[in-house]
User: Fold this.
Amino acid sequence: MTLKVIGAGFGRTGTLSLKIALEQLEVGPCYHMSEIHQAPQRAAKWREAADGGKPDWDGIFDGYASTVDWPAAHYWRELADYYPEAKVLLSHRDAKGWYKSISNTIHKVMQAIEDDGSSAFKSSPAAMAAKIVKVQTFQGRLGEESYAIDVFEKHNQAVRDTIAPERLLVYQPGDGWEPICKFLGVPVPKSDYPRTNSTQEFYEQFVDFGEKRDE
Assistant:
């Protein structure tokens, strides 16, 4: 199995709903940060990539047909080159709404874990996520709204400028099934497009992220 869809959108742009949607369309399993939460040992290979090692993409995505969300979204260029037949899906939303969402979820959880000062943090998947998201994507400035929004907007524009139009779908959570199904050449399901991962659902899912280990 090889990747058919690469999600280039940042977290908190409807990526968990998108994961569920792609799996319903049989373009799955779909790799999402939640996969690492459920199987913390997966973090080790991402840690190697974050530390400058050569990523084992085929090993990381073994058994998966698609990926969305971080950590993969940080490596969208590399993945687009490595899987030239894969389509690229850029999930996005208005910048102010995105920042409000990420500051109330991902940033708050990462900050709380770091502030705890526990040595266990260093061996948790959350440490890997913090390095890729907070440090490498936002240069440690995720808490600065104007800076984070600038990174977000420049990222989205870079994807648009780099990926050929026929290979790229720019998608907002409210767009529903039709654009994705047309893009992938699959029938539109009769069921409603999935909606999940509100702020409350995020906390319920990731409350223990910093306590897990990647050994």
In short: DSSP finds eleven helices and five strands in the chain. The chain has one domain: 5-211.
